[in-house]
Structures are given as C-alpha cells and as structure tokens.
Amino acid sequence: MSDSPAPLADPHLLFDAADGRRDLVILGSTGSIGTQAIDLVLRNPDRFRVTALSAAGGRVALLAEQARRLRVNTVAVAAEDAVPALREALRDQYGAGEPLPEILAGPDAATALAASDCHTVLNGITGSIGLAPTLAALKAGRTLALANKESLIVGGPLVKALAAPGQIIPVDSEHAAALPGAGRRHPRR
C-alpha cells in the first residue's frame, strides 16, 4: 500500500493502522447499507478493520453476529431497552470466557462512535437522527462515507461548513449531486 494520500482526503485526515488496514466505524450496520459494507469488509480483510458498529436496536441478533464476525471493540444501540437482549445475543455468539465488546446505548451512542478513533465513519443511519453522527465525524476529522441523505437535507449548510475538502465520500449519486465536486473524484483502490 502506498503512503500517498487518497484522492478524496487531505493528508491530515489519513491515518491507517500499522498493518495497512483502515479502521472503520459502521453506523446503521443492520440496515441495507451497513450489511453491504460488512460484506465488502469481509471480502477485503487485508484492507479494512471494523472497530465499532451501531444499530437502532431492533435486530440485536444480527448486530451480535456482525460484532462476532468482525471482532469489533464496541457496539451501540439507540434503543436503551435493547441492551439486555443485545448482551444475551452477544453471549450466545461469543465463546465462554471470551470478552464481549463494550456496549453503548441511547440516542447519542452513534454520535459517540462517529467521533471515536478510526479512519472512516460510514453513516448508513436512516433519517434525520443521522445528522448528529455526521457532524461528530466531521468535527473529529474523520473521513465520512455518507449514505445518510437527511444529513444534507436537514443540515446541509452545517455539514458543508464543517467538512474539509475531500472529507466526505458520497456513497451514492444522490449524495454526490448534493456535494459539488465530490462525484468527480474516485477513492484510492
């Protein structure tokens, strides 16, 4: 892997893991975008490592399975009442004596993960609740793979004011159209 920066990110935004993999946080991991991202990560273990996952809390068995497969450090759910079921699902997935990931819960849990130590945050959360994690990732200097269109609809001026050039990678053409210049560039392969 080259030490040159990716075309979509300023050099100050880049910090790859010592082994050359990029540390990712996936928000909305049990949804369509999140599950597709996890499939990509699992097919490219030499390029990516997922450190944390978040979900709303309605699919705790899937979240626990994802956590085990990816060996994440932290999982988060927005629904605090989902924590007991999540903890049980994690125990079912992990072996006896194997440490479980840290669990964060509540409406700000995904926002905390978005600001955590990683290279890239994929925001696949549905709805306007995805705005706070988007802003947190940008403020923390993380590269943001944005699949949450509401961040741009509801908070467009805030998002654009916080984002450094190339800090946001649009996940689809709808986001690229809302971010001038973003759709013409391609991330490093």
From TrEMBL:
<comment type="similarity">
    <text>Belongs to the DXR family.</text>
</comment>
<dbReference type="Pfam" id="PF02670">
    <property type="entry name" value="DXP_reductoisom"/>
</dbReference>
<keyword id="KW-0464">Manganese</keyword>
<dbReference type="GO" id="GO:0070402">
    <property type="term" value="F:NADPH binding"/>
</dbReference>
<keyword id="KW-0560">Oxidoreductase</keyword>
<dbReference type="GO" id="GO:0051484">
    <property type="term" value="P:isopentenyl diphosphate biosynthetic process, methylerythritol 4-phosphate pathway involved in terpenoid biosynthetic process"/>
</dbReference>
<dbReference type="InterPro" id="IPR013512">
    <property type="entry name" value="DXP_reductoisomerase_N"/>
</dbReference>
<keyword id="KW-0521">NADP</keyword>
<keyword id="KW-0413">Isomerase</keyword>
<dbReference type="GO" id="GO:0030604">
    <property type="term" value="F:1-deoxy-D-xylulose-5-phosphate reductoisomerase activity"/>
</dbReference>
<keyword id="KW-0479">Metal-binding</keyword>
<dbReference type="GO" id="GO:0030145">
    <property type="term" value="F:manganese ion binding"/>
</dbReference>
<keyword id="KW-0414">Isoprene biosynthesis</keyword>
<dbReference type="GO" id="GO:0016853">
    <property type="term" value="F:isomerase activity"/>
</dbReference>
<protein>
    <recommendedName>
        <fullName>1-deoxy-D-xylulose-5-phosphate reductoisomerase</fullName>
        <ecNumber>1.1.1.267</ecNumber>
    </recommendedName>
</protein>
<dbReference type="InterPro" id="IPR036291">
    <property type="entry name" value="NAD(P)-bd_dom_sf"/>
</dbReference>
<comment type="pathway">
    <text>Isoprenoid biosynthesis; isopentenyl diphosphate biosynthesis via DXP pathway; isopentenyl diphosphate from 1-deoxy-D-xylulose 5-phosphate: step 1/6.</text>
</comment>
<dbReference type="InterPro" id="IPR003821">
    <property type="entry name" value="DXP_reductoisomerase"/>
</dbReference>
<feature type="domain" description="1-deoxy-D-xylulose 5-phosphate reductoisomerase N-terminal">
    <location>
        <begin position="24"/>
        <end position="156"/>
    </location>
</feature>
